[in-house]
Amino acid sequence: MKLTHTLIAAAIACSLAAPALAADVLGTAGGAQVTDVDISAILSDARVDPATITPDGIDRTVRNELARRVLLNEARKAGLDKQPDVQRAMTRASENALTQKFVASQAMPPPDYPSDAELHAAYDANKAKFKQPKRVSLAQIFLIGTDDATQKRAAAIDADLKAHPDTFADVAAKQSQDKDSAAHGGQLPVVAVNLLDPQIAKAIEPLPKGGVSGVIVEKGGIRILRVLDRADESQATFEQVRVDLIRAMREQKGRENEEAFVNKTIAQFPPSINPAGISKLAASQLPPAPK
Length: 291
Prior knowledge:
By secondary structure, the chain is an alpha+beta fold. The protein is built from 10 helices and 8 strands.
């Protein structure tokens, strides 16, 4: 696992009050194109947090959407959308989407749910579950490739660091080929130990604060790590879990509301079943008896 900042696709903020602007084409492939308006809609529907926007994330979303549209165009050219079984599947998918949207719209919890009192009650009732796992702050020197020359370079860097471990940040800034971390003296975001790649977790496990791992050869390159700090498992505070707790409680309430709404609606329209017709259809689906 490469310990770099996670790049997450995010929504492009659009104001309804703003004047209409010509859409910018973000990518083309074959006869397909994707605009900024298309990507804004996709990310909005996916409810991606706008605060997590990155160019790399948007780039991936554009490429994925282009691939989808190219395949869709090819399927239409092949006439697949004219086949009866495909048309039935498309109709059913459309109806399912409409049904799900309708139920979700009726089950949405009110904007003020949960209240502060409900939040605190949920936190107190589940306090034992809200734990901060063991965490570690690492710095890295990352070299691309695993060829002999790169391994010799890594060994030389490792030897220098063993003699002068406090120069790690300066060496990372000059030698590391991971630009994001190199710009910060090799420092990486704090990470939960249980989320580390097993090879990395094993390499840093015996290291004290300030310890250097030595050379770690991976598929894509070579890494040398330094432990900057460690934190043991601890109780998460209410404020630390507040946002996640709100999301979890709203999702749970939404599921409860959906079930209640579906049951109430179905109760208003009780089904009338034809047992004889069901038996007839079931019999028609049986394979013919062996002769």
